[in-house]
Specification:
The protein is an alpha/beta fold. The protein contains 11 helices and 7 strands. Bound molecules: zinc ion. InterPro entries: GlcNAc_PI_deacetylase-related, LmbE-like_dom_sf, Mca.
């Protein structure tokens, strides 16, 4: 029997897969790994962040379709499969006090119930490894936090025949990671490298604000070398045209600086059912060489 490694990346909105772990996915695809992105919501409440497309009434009125089309393009670029879990974007509440979340949105769903479509997808795709966000969501968007919650429930439940009956044969994923690509050590390294080269850094203000952040002190366990695929990541991100300003800060750090200074995408191993040693450079460490996987 041919052994096929499978990776599932759970994301809140279309575009999150292209900004978090995209180079990792493209790398694994190039190695023959089967990669599936599970997108929780349609991104219907995302603002149009590309100044060139702001005020376009067609886009505003058809945001769901537009974002689905962008997602299809990004999926092609990354070479991944992708499924929608079918939830409705909660939007990022802004203001003081924060407005209530809109009725029926993803973040207001019951966690147990909302994990069901993910359990179903895990049972049909049978991933060895799942990536998701940490309990802070990576950034405090209610959909990202909800994505974390359903991922944790589904990781535990998918292999248990007693839970979620009628959603397919149980399947036990072996590892679960949090995306930690926007970590402080990486940001500091890029910031300093830019200044040392006499270039402008988009990170100065960010780093100042970051001091109080609760993301400080998170454990990075896994550094996946993926610099070769950073250009693919950027191409996929640009495919989400409504969500990204191609002139924006994201693209202001020269590619060669990124590739030289911090050539990995980074993760925190949150759960493992296989022995592994930290630090790792492969999401499949402890699985790949084990005859036990199927
Ligand atoms: Zn998002």
């Amino acid at each position: 029997m041919t052994k096929q490694l499978r990776l599932m990346a759970v994301h809140a909105h279309p575009d999150d897969e292209s900004s978090k772990g995209a180079a990792t996915m493209a790398k694994y695809v190039s190695e023959g790994v089967d990669v599936l992105v599970a997108t929780c919501t349609g991104g219907e409440r995302g603002s149009i962040l590309n100044p060139k497309l702001q005020g376009d009434t067609y886009i505003e009125e058809h945001i769901h379709e537009v974002r689905a089309k962008e997602m299809a393009e990004a999926r092609e670029i990354l070479g991944v499969k992708q499924e929608w879990l079918g939830f409705v974007d909660s939007g990022l509440p802004e203001g003081d006090p924060l407005p209530p979340l809109p009725e029926g949105c993803f973040a207001l769903q019951d966690v147990e119930a909302a994990a069901e479509p993910l359990v179903r997808l895990i049972r049909s795709f049978r991933p060895h490894v799942i990536t998701t966000y940490d309990e802070n969501g990576g950034y405090p968007h209610p959909d990202h936090i909800m994505t974390h919650k359903i991922s944790m429930v589904a990781y535990e439940a998918a292999g248990d025949p007693e839970r979620y009956p009628g959603t397919g044969e149980p399947w036990t994923p072996l590892k679960l990671y949090y995306n930690q690509g926007f970590n402080r050590p990486r940001t500091v390294a890029l910031h300093e490298a830019l200044l040392a080269r006499g270039l402008e850094s988009p990170y100065g203000e960010w780093l100042e604000r970051w001091d109080e952040s609760d993301r400080e002190g998170r454990t990075l366990t896994t550094f996946v070398p993926s610099a070769e695929f950073f250009p693919v990541r950027d191409k996929a991100l640009i495919a989400h045209a409504t969500q990204i300003d191609p002139e924006g800060g994201w693209f202001r750090v020269p590619m060669e600086v990124q590739q030289e200074v911090w050539p990995t995408e980074d993760y925190e191993l949150a759960k493992s059912r296989v022995p592994t040693s930290i630090p790792e450079s492969d999401l499949f460490a402890g699985i790949r060489d084990n005859d036990g996987y199927e």
